[in-house]
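Input (Mediator of RNA polymerase II transcription subunit 22):
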Amino acid sequence: RSMAQRAQFETDAIRPTGLSSTIAPHHRVDDKLNSAEYLDAVEEEWNKRVDAEVETLVGGMQDLVELATVGDKDKHRIYEDAFETELRAENMVRAAHSLLSIVHSLKLMILLSDEGQVVERRQRELTQLAKETEAAKERAAEEWKKLVHGEDAEEAAEGEEVEDEDDAMDEV
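Output:
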């Protein structure tokens, strides 16, 4: 297969055009990227979403701590702080729900990915690699014999095979 054909089948990542309308708006990745670039871009997008929500949670917690200062406050300031505290808490709850939604989406992506195809491809690659390794070992052994015994090693090896066959015939 050509490199372009292999690039099409290297991943089971879903392209934005195939996503449902609930997930599709979050994916703004160029379709012209190869598989690895596409996955990197999607991963970066998810990381940015998670970072934004975590930043909202941290900022909200810092604001709540600042609002909780004890001191001389009039009624008006106390009501303002209470309202601001409610707003910060609502923002934090929204960020936490968003993080839960992100986690749920990522779990679904993992569960719905074609794990069987990935395992099958890896197994084929391992089998092919084992065959290539065995062939390389055999070639290395032949080259070693040539180096140790000289050019006549091939003839000697063939002679040994003939003798082994004769011995086997004698035993029968």
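Confidence is low (pLDDT under 50) at residues 1-9, 14-25.
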